[in-house]
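fyi for ur records
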Amino acid sequence: MAFQPPKSDFELLAPAPKTPGKRRIAIVTGSRAEFGLLKPVIAAIGREPSLEAAVLVAGSHLLAPANTHTEVSRTFRVAAVVPMQAPGAQTRIEDAEAVGRGITRFARTFYKVNADCVLVLGDRIEAFAAASAASVGGVPLAHIHGGDRAEGVADEAMRHAISKLAHIHFAATAQSADRLVRMGELPERVHNVGSPAIDGLDAIPPLDDEEARAVGDPELVILHHPCGLTEAEERSHAAAIVDVAASSRKRTLVLAPNFDPGREAVLEVLRAGTAENGWHFLDHLPREVFVGLLKRLATRGGLLLGNSSAGLIEAAAVNCRVVNVGPRQSGRESPANVVHVQSPSSGAISLAVGCHKMPSRAEHPYGDGHTGPRIAQVLVSTDFDDPALIRKRCAY
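which gave:
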């Protein structure tokens, strides 16, 4: 008997009606950090008369204890929720399973929300699943922060894979834009718009004394994520950071790591250090509070310690000292506010903390704070119905 393919579920879905005169941009957010970057982009798209934003919440937003989907829904109307990860499932093979679920669910969601274009940012599995569904499904795909270099867990491969799936590229720096062109992307589809992480920073004041006391009035902030190493290495790096913070006797705030594989090993070490030293620990800080805290640290000689990309982007823009630990950000353009410790030990990190003298002003390559409107303008001027847009070809 000949194979009979399963009946498609798509005939059961009714695409949402379009607002007359508007084209719908499906914007995917999967994590707390990436949502902070997407906020000015979503707002700029919402201000364009010919565009409307359909915000799709996925990934670690939906996981306890932070449950950061609530922050998204307080800020924007959420068009759909796309579950991918299972609670407590944080191995790389479980991430691979989550990608499979995500591709299926994003495909149905893009059809149901009637998306004219899908917009993703960065290199996480939520962005990769959405990008795969859009590209295979014939929906124009735009990608923010393509062309960057950063090792992370699987970030380097994921980011460049998304770039090869994408039809419109919003690069954060001139180097990243050039890298995309050298990867064979059409130059006219590559736009150096800067990083949306810089948008709106000038409008956020430093935390005042009362606001700072609510988070422990820290002199040192630990923000350290897993980066694809063995469990023993993840623990060792986190333990070295805890040792240095404890030896410094500074008021310390610890922020929870993200939900990449290896989280539990890092989290266990950070929680133990918090309990032993009486530090403050928070699962999440809203972006405005986090940026205000960075500004307060900058004016008071404070320090961000760990391996977050915020140390190389937002912290550089507000002139905050950073000691970056381990390989997670290897390859990313590094402003003068950052000192790197590639082979982490307590001694090496302590030396970096002690010798880090901040320049009067750290220059950075990530734009001028007007990225959201630039992205919106490119989307306004793009013909999503042009067959040539989604017909990918290598430029060399």
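The chain has a mean pLDDT of 93. thats all i got for now
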